[in-house]
Amino acid sequence: MENKVDVKKINEKIEKESAFVDLLKSEMSKVIVGQNSMIDRLLIGLLGKGHILLEGVPGLAKTLAINTLSKAISGSYSRIQFTPDLLPADVIGTQLYNVKQSKFSVKKGPVFANFVLADEINRAPAKVQSALLEAMQEKQVTIGDKSFKLDEPFLVMATQNPIDQEGTYPLPEAQVDRFMLKTIISYPNVEDEKSIMRANLQNSLSSVKSVVTLKKIMTAQKTVREVYMDEKIESYILEIIFATRYPEKYGLSNLKPLISFGASPRGSINLALASKCYAFINRRGFVIPDDIRSVVYDVLQHRIGISYEAEAENLSSFDIIKSIIDKIEVP
User: Cα–chain-centroid distance for residue 13?
Assistant: First the structure.
């Protein structure tokens, strides 16, 4: 009985604390048309202190989305165009020698912002990718012999273009695992595209106002962890994760030859956290199985290795997750 009272209390608190979400979404939808799922994923990444890898063909408003979010939250924004000749110093910053003062001074790089867009991350060599990924993981940067804390909140949205693979450096699995979510962006539908086309031709895109403070976001990042998660929901998450590692134990022996490696513990942590964030943006103080099913593909599709056999059968990690979700019993 006591538990029920607590859940009710948490629910009321979350409902009050998450009021800004609707405001933020409606402000962003003035500019971003028909990509509600991408906006949700950006908010999950922001509230869960995670980072997002977006994959989609050019022109699907990926750059516009994170720029719009930074304006609606009055945060600082920077865009790094990844190219094969980029150096780690171009991302994190470097030391410059001042001849007059005979000493070195630090010039901070574009990674020192609240919202960082790493455009076409797979265009730059491994050294540059790892410099950014270290900043993402440690939330700090070392230049020379000094360490600098990065601004808070700190969200990296990296994009990769799936169609043009010439001259690219695919992200290694261990680095991709650092992203909380990997989201595949699809084309808008006919009605949405008509609105986008008209707004652009009439030059009538609304300007975005700041509707939420950075302080509010940082408070929400703490509050989101208070969202209630029942033990049955925890077990459901763990069953999904373990089914990616030992599918034969869950009556999915057919998946065994298709998976080269399953999700790591980072997978279970991020699935639990993303589910809490999803409940929060839906203004609910407790996690339901639907929250998990809504975010599971984004959290896991880059954490499962598929074998050559799966590739030969034209199966992706998405298909494997779908088989697992269909099989595991919902609590």
Answer: 25
